[in-house]
Design a protein that fits this description.
Elements: E1 2-5, H1 10-21, E2 26-30, H2 33-43, E3 51-55, H3 61-72, E4 80-83, H4 98-123, E5 133-137, H5 141-144, H6 149-169, E6 175-181, H7 195-203, H8 213-224, E7 235-238
Parallel strand pairs: 1-2, 1-4, 2-3, 4-5, 5-6, 6-7
Helix pairs in contact: 1-8, 3-4, 4-6
């Protein structure tokens, strides 16, 4: 069984499809029940797998607890958890009131860090031993600083947390790694990136184009499989390679 948060669209949906095609039954978590239903219906049966929707706000402790209780009624062991749920942070003006700053940073932390911590912690007792896999979907912005400060800090926290996870769970045969996408073409970004920003982003990528969600999912698929049994505590960039300025 694989559990994918933020599994209704974009990278999460692509990860769910890749894992289902690999033969994992998949549970999709997300806040929008209608989107999850549509994705589950589209992916169910892929690779002979069952794909189920399970609406849940993974940044809410009660919601996670209820969802995991329901999930445990479907299966006794979880092989893979993909923590893909996240959200961009609000870009604030330099003179924003402190309460706005606090709100933006708290929201970024809940969406991008606490969501992964809660889901992973709740599923930890049922992760396969040995062979369990924890995958965190981070961001290249954690290295480049190329986003809002709150988002950069939140995604950077995942890179640190994975070291703790890998060290603690490794002796039980469970790996934990971060997949760190660069600029990726998703429905979330469609129409939101101004043309000049799009071109600036492309000039910094050696591949000269955005990633497709399926290319990120291919790395998640690798980490979920037996070939990645000795890959642990790593941050794997999937960003097309950097192009030096000039």
């Amino acid at each position: 069984m694989a559990v994918v948060s933020g599994g209704g669209t974009g990278i999460g949906r692509a990860c769910a499809a890749a894992l289902a095609d690999e033969g994992f039954d998949v549970v999709l978590l997300g806040r929008r029940a209608d989107v999850l239903d549509d994705t589950a219906a589209a992916l169910d049966g892929l690779g002979g797998s069952t794909v189920r929707p399970l609406p849940c706000d993974v940044s809410d402790p009660d919601g996670v607890q209820q969802a995991v209780a329901e999930l445990r009624g479907w299966c006794e062991v979880v092989d893979v958890v993909v923590n893909n749920a996240g959200a961009a942070a609000v870009r604030l003006p330099a003179d924003a009131p402190l309460e706005h700053v606090a709100g933006a940073w708290t929201d970024a932390w809940r969406a991008n860090v606490l969501s992964a911590v809660l889901l992973t912690t709740a599923l930890e007792p049922v992760l396969a031993r040995p062979g369990g896999r924890v995958v965190l979907v981070g961001s290249r912005a954690a290295v480049t600083g190329g986003s809002t400060p709150a988002y950069v800090a939140a995604k950077s926290a995942l890179n640190g947390w994975v070291l703790s996870l890998a060290s603690r769970l490794g002796p039980e045969g469970i790996t934990a790694n971060v997949v760190s996408p660069g600029y990726t073409s998703t429905d979330l970004l469609a129409g939101r990136i101004p043309p000049e920003r799009h071109e600036a982003l492309l000039t910094a990528i050696a591949a000269g184009r955005p990633a497709q969600p399926e290319e990120i999912a291919a790395v998640v698929r690798f980490l979920a499989g037996p070939s990645a049994s000795y890959v642990n505590g790593q941050v794997l960039g999937v960003d097309g390679g950097p192009r030096p300025p000039g």
